[in-house]
Specification:
Length: 303
């Protein structure tokens, strides 16, 4: 129980898990098409949780089902395809750094959609963060990270992550995290299987060593990096807030860059400069959260 209620321990586990996801995606797309990687990841997570998910719906009020569907689509379905497509051209280290934009979009959409006020410091943080992202996207420094359109797919994924975090915080904070996660992946299991079928996976899979290796990476992504990690993420949001949970982006790029370096990716001063600007922006956005009742009102919840 201490583990389940320790927000810092949950944050550390999420950091290590999600920080390692980018290198696993990179390895997965060596064996499968990006569409297959996304569909496989969701299918594996869905199959692992569907037994629990079916029974979870009776605990979810009907008025909240639409938010479970919308949040799941934005935070668990679409990004699973965006990252594999993006990482055809974007290095895993750069992908991890760009993923740090999530708190910035939580700040922006929190104000636009939910009226959460921002301080001048937070606005400055958002500007600095975007400057870092622009530097990283514009001058990635390697062929892997220089494609603007592919980098923007990751930015789009962070927008969806930010919206999902706000939806959970605003509408779904009372639902147990395990039941919420199980319901979400159960809902999107069917579409994932359909996409997997149309992607040609079943006809193309021959069980070659390369495919089996890729399948192993996707299985880890599905079971650990998706199903388990999302349960912990939902729990963390409900214990604290969308802003606090998004601080996983402080440490996650370090893990992603470390794996990228070990895999032979080149780390340039552009990566370091852009990453530092993004993290500085995220830090400035967090400054108000310890004092703000608007954003951190759910910080006092202990379950």
């Amino acid at each position: 129980m201490k583990f389940w209620t320790n927000k810092w321990l949950l944050l550390l586990i999420l950091t290590l898990t999600w920080g390692s996801s980018f290198i696993m995606i990179k390895q997965s797309i060596k064996a499968f098409h990006p569409m297959q990687v996304g569909a496989l990841r969701l299918t594996i997570a869905g199959l692992a949780l569907v037994g629990f998910g079916i029974g979870s719906f009776k605990y979810i009020p009907k008025k909240l089902i639409k938010w479970v569907v919308i949040g799941g689509c934005l935070g668990n379905f679409i990004p699973m395809f965006l990252f594999p497509f993006a990482q055809q051209k974007v290095s895993s280290a750069t992908a991890g750094i760009l993923d740090s934009l999530v708190p910035i979009f939580i700040l922006i959409f929190g104000f636009l959609l939910f009226g959460i006020k921002s301080s001048k410091t937070q606005i400055l943080g958002a500007i600095i963060g975007f400057a870092g992202a622009f530097l990283l996207i514009k001058n990635g420094g390697t062929k892997e990270s220089s494609d603007f359109l592919f980098s923007m797919l990751i930015v789009l994924a962070t927008i969806f992550y930010g919206l999902n975090g706000l939806i959970i915080s605003e509408y779904l904070s009372e639902l147990p995290s395990f039941r919420l996660s199980a319901a979400v992946f159960t809902i999107w299991l069917g579409p994932s299987l359909i996409i997997l079928g149309f992607s040609g996976f079943f006809s193309e899979f021959t069980g070659s060593p390369e495919q089996l290796k890729g399948l192993g990476f996707v299985a880890i992504l599905g079971l650990v990096g998706t199903a388990t990690a999302m349960i912990l993420y939902y729990k963390l949001i409900q214990m604290t807030s969308a802003i606090f949970a998004s601080t996983v982006t402080y440490l996650m790029p370090i893990v992603a860059v470390m794996w990228g370096f070990l895999d032979g990716e080149k780390l340039t001063w552009v990566h370091i400069g852009g990453g530092m600007l993004i993290l500085l922006g995220v830090y400035l956005i967090q400054v108000k959260t310890d004092k703000s009742k608007n954003i951190e009102s759910s910080e006092t919840i202990e379950v």
